[in-house]
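Hi Y.,

Following your request, here is the sequence exactly as I used it, all 747 residues.
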Amino acid sequence: MGDLPGPHKAGPHKAGPHKAGPRKAGPRKAGPRKAGRSNGRVSAAYADAARRSARVTLAGTAGFYLFLYGLDAPAGATYAVFAAVALAGLSRIPGTGRQRAAVVLRSLPACWVLIVLGTYLSVRTWSAAVGMLVIGFTLAFVAVGGPRPAGAAPGLQLMYILPCFPPYDPGALGERLTGATTGILLLVLAEAFLFPEPPTVPYRELAARAADLARTCADELAGEPYALSEDSARATREASTGLRASKVPPADRPAGPSVRQRALAQTGLAARTLLGALRNLPPGHAATGPGPDLLRAVATAAAETADLLRGAEPRREAHENLLRARADLLAGRDEGDAPEELRRDAAVLEVADAALSMSTAADLAVRGREAATMAAPGRFWYADVWAPGLWWRRLAGHAGSRSVFFQNAVRISLALAATRVIAGVDTLPHGFWALLATLTLTRTTVGETRSAMRPALVGTLVGALVAAALLTLAGSDTVVYAAILPPLMLAAFTLGPVRGVGWAQGLFTVVVALLFAQLSPATWQIAGFRVLEVLAGSAVGAVFGLLAWPRGAHDELRRAGAVLLRSAAEVVVATTARLAVGGTREPAATAPGHRSLNHALVLAESAYAQYQSEPKGMRAGDDAPDWSAVLIVGHHALWGADRLLLPPERSVVPPLGETAAAALDRLGDRVAGRMLLVSARTDPTDDTPEPPVPLRDPAFDGFMAQPDGAPRRYYAAAAWLDSLLTGLERITTDSTSPAVVARPADA
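Below is the corresponding structure, written out as tokens. Let me know if you'd prefer a different format.
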């Protein structure tokens, strides 16, 4: 029970991409503390598990004893204890105790619905199985809503599994609902008030710290020596890494579909982009011209953003000043300006655009739709969309076989429905144990499922032997079982999550034996039934793990990365073509290919998150690209196209001119071509071509080209394309290619 089912894991547990190759010697990186003792103190893993175990044990046993011995209501006792176990033992809802209590309380109506459906559908095996199929898929697919829905999903599955078996007894529905409600309310109280965990740093504060650092860096670059110190450059890298989703606790991760959650995630991404742009600004690049003034405006806007994220009264003065400074620079005459000055201005404009994006996103994250009028409709399309529409977009975006959320939901729902059919046809005496085994042992890869089965079966067998001995020795003396149950539950939910699936299954086998021995007379045979049904449930999970996407996110991430780069290549070609010919620019329009590239990003990010949570064995020996760099290239292509093509107000842009247009088209085509070559390397198909040309195009000295009469827009686009190529170079390396030219780090 303490081991989470693979399809419902809330997010990646490891940070950063996994790169193939031999391990290098060097300092050991910090990571999660292993179970055990360290310097005579109980490890953090045991301490956290013990706190959670104490809460579920107190809530579960209190409800169980109240209904069984106080009210003589066995059905109510069963549902009271299993409701607490489902939403605190089986589920892994992230966050502090009060955050989990809020999620559990909001889940109460859903629990009522699931118990009612399970009670009435249990009349026939086929109706219970169809209900299991639909409900199992729905609850698993809701994981697209973020870590909290994903964490609660396994427990909600159990709230349908428990009543969907005979006896068909609608008359006991009231007692079932009362017992479950009592157990859940006791759990809410325990989560909210018992054994609080140390607080974590909220994502808003992390973003505010990044904004503060951006202010410091902008001030440094605006004055002598017009360069970042080594300490500041190192701090920007650390702050940028700290904002990555894999580095943020799941409870604080902005992953939901709401306006504020989307905006907070975009604030973090914009802050990372801003820090990278400041770090990559060459020394002395802003020493002359309007650069220092614009950087000082960036610093003021970053300080305003940090204050806003920390709860200060919303002000827009610095944001508006930065907008005006940026507009003044864009409105400057191109004639007479040296190409070096135009290239310098383009680099400083990238810094300003990132700061404006961060400021707008932070305003939306704090004020929600009240700030929607200030947001650009292209990049912040979600600002004035109501919650049902945002949820629909999130669900529809993953409603396809290319989404790992969809794959996981299909896999687990089919496995649960098949187990329900087998349990009904064979009339297993405790069929819900088989479904529980399927739920807890089915993983996202067949290898992981297979590796979990062996310790689970061994643990169940050992637990069954212990349970059989207890039942034989104690007989019908329920006082013994009542006395042993609380410490045993405490041990089960403490050791299980830390020591692994074998301990979890073994200890929980003894727990359920003691529970049922108090509900009705039981013999040692109940332990044998437990082994049989765990074997049946795990076998079904293994079969469907083999049939339904057995490699998990491994192939899907490669496919999603290839699609992402192909979509980015299309955006690059379309953007450079529109920049070359000029025309009317509307602020309400989206850049060409925006929706398809954004959808590709969503699928790639979800596949990458699952890929990071899967065992290292799936990635061993895999010549994997730098997937984090793939995602950064996609984001940079999307944001750059929007920035270049979506002005804050309607305007008419003249053509670039024949020479500049030809140069920009050539650069765009070459970047798009390199994107397609890298895409071919990531594609998992057997006929993937191996491009013989080096990743770095020797003809890309064109980035230094200075066409006669080229306006600022040309240099802004060239800087964007150069940054994309830098990102492509970091995705993969080719041992047969010439040495990659050193480029600035990406944004």
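The longest strand covers residues 583-585.

Thanks again,
Q.
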